[in-house]
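pasting for ref
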Amino acid sequence: MYRKTRSYLRAAIAFVLLAASHILLAQAAQSSTDPSFPRTQNQDKTESSTPSKKSPDSSATQNAPKSVQPEQEEKKISPQEAQELFRSVDEILKFASKDTSLPIHDEVKRKLVNRDEVVAFIRKHMEEDEDAQRLRRSELVLKKFGLLPRDFDLETFLVALLREQVAGYYDPQAKTVNLLDWIEPEQQKPVLAHELTHALQDQSFGLEKYMKAGDADLGASKKEPTQEDIENDEISTAHQAVVEGQAMVVLLDYELLPIGQSVVDSP
């Protein structure tokens, strides 16, 4: 989702929060007090055969048998596969450049990261900016409506969900695309097309500057928002849509490439 600058991370968190809300709404009818809910899709698949998995920070996970701990089961890609993935960055970057007409100004740095590094990255940015305040307000609202147990930690849940669902991300501050050491290279390549589009956007017009245009947290203000505030907020939302929309089109075009089609001419 989406990492990562302040606004870029915010978009990812907003998307995950929306998805989580739908999950919670569906599950609230079944149980509003069950300490194991809500669960990710991966957890639901194994519910009948193994204990439900919580976030890596939860006491239940720490006390669970090794057989249900993801770290014990996870397969890492080989050094050869990592080299292949690194080599594919330049090839996919050229494809994204041709698909978007955004020129390549600089080489994009690449880094192989593990799940713990991804979690640390997410937590660092969630703690640093106003997304933490947004998250607390959202958690409070969900609890007020009875959609979350009062002792439920939404931040821990979202971090755990992102830890499972993330498939690569571009960090505009480090000018680096981060590749994952537990996902097969072929599965990561379409995501690379998406993230490298963000890299090209960053090189062409400065992703942070573009995403900060109109940036304002209207929910955090105690004053009634002015018309200008609302217009700026709409600008920020529009910029997020442009950035993510273009990257998603490139991802789809990359997946359609083997059959000689694109989003434009695909039925």
